[in-house]
Amino acid sequence: MSEKLRLLPAMSSCPTVHLTLPQWDGGSRKIRFVYLVNVTSFRLTECPNKHPVIPLYLGADLLSNTNIRTENHPRYHAKFAKKGLATKIHFSSGFRFNGLKVPAANNSLWFYSIQGLFRVAFEMYSKQEQLAVLENFQDVWKSQLNDSHLNISYSLSVQLDVSVPLGQRDTGSKNEMSQPFYCQAEREMVDVCGSDAAKSSADHDYCSSQSQSFQTEQSQPLVSSVRQKLRSLDDQLSSEPQSCTEQLETVSLLLENINRYIKGNLEEKDATETVLALLKAKDWGSVYSSSLLSCVGRWLGQQFHAANSSISQKVEGFKVQHIERISDLPPAEELATELFPEAMQTLLLHWMGLSEESSLEKRRSEYPILLLILEFANHNLITGVAHVLYSSLICK
């Protein structure tokens, strides 16, 4: 073996290597980065022989001091990852990062390509910061012009770099270890988790090279957040037992249906109860300024609009059946019930004050108006009155 061989002390698990990421200093904005060498290796310095590498920029630094809240960063990272502009790197557990709070169980960080950096800069930075990025990174952008899109995630276990001082390693024992520390002619290879050791120790797989799926990696911080909120709710209920019965009943209903949702057996009636309980939870303000009513109205409108083609088919079938007696149609209420979704009628009935409590005579007198509204709103004219009014309105 031509390489110079240096043995590190052994330990019961992989050695810990403390790394400080290199950093670009742009005044108010500082961006840390690494170089991706291949699907398992990385560097903190440029390769001396100019071996092609891909610079990757720390996502937390890119989104800092923007209008994106910290708790929303994972969602934005995932959005850019779908476009191949960002990736989640899972480092072997032996690597620890100075100045970064990374959960040991996860040991993952988001990074962006140079194209992703420019996209973030021109979407979220001030003009002055955009200019700084342009001046400092345009050469990098040119050199990486032909880079492929990033994978959604990588699992990195090998650091390819210049010599790392032994003082930066936490070996934990003075015995010899079976995995060597290789010093090659141009670089040192720090393999924190030797593949042979990983294969021979299935029950002590401290640095497994198997990467979790993107969905699983994404869920880890969310699971922690959900558990924290549940603990907070538990603490609040313990400290405030005087909460009114109505509030507790609503909370119980929500938790019950959250449990059904997680288990995958949430039904439409459960969602109905949940939404209704929240809508009735308090007075949501003026109809002129209620964002809740606007949101509900928008959602209803989208659902009704999406049903237009099926309504048109039903109306056309009805016209074919009644072509011989188009001037002798059933009463308005029967037509509305046969041709239009119940939800549309329910909305208009209550809107017009024709709910179940209204007198039968009042409903019959105003149902033709309701039918006209349904015909116009759905762009499906049935009655003679609707055709006449439509022609009159169009002519004007």
Description:
With 396 residues, this protein is α+β, with helices and mostly antiparallel strands. It has three domains: 4-204, no CATH class; 243-282; 291-395, no CATH class. It is built from 14 helices and 14 strands. It has helices at 59-63, 73-82, 114-124, 127-143, 195-200, 214-239, 245-263, 268-279, 291-306, 308-321, 332-339, 342-351, 360-377, 384-395, and strands at 4-9, 16-19, 23-26, 29-36, 41-43, 54-58, 86-91, 95-97, 108-112, 153-156, 158-161, 169-170, 176-183, 188-191. Strands 1, 3, 4, 5, 6, 7, 9, 10, 11, 13 and 14 form an eleven-stranded mixed sheet that branches. Strands 8-2-12 form a three-stranded mixed sheet, with no helix packed on it.
The global form is elongated
On the 0 to 100 scale, the average pLDDT is 79
Count of distinct structural domains? 3
What is the radius of gyration computed over CA atoms, rounded to a whole number of angstroms?
Answer: 32 Å
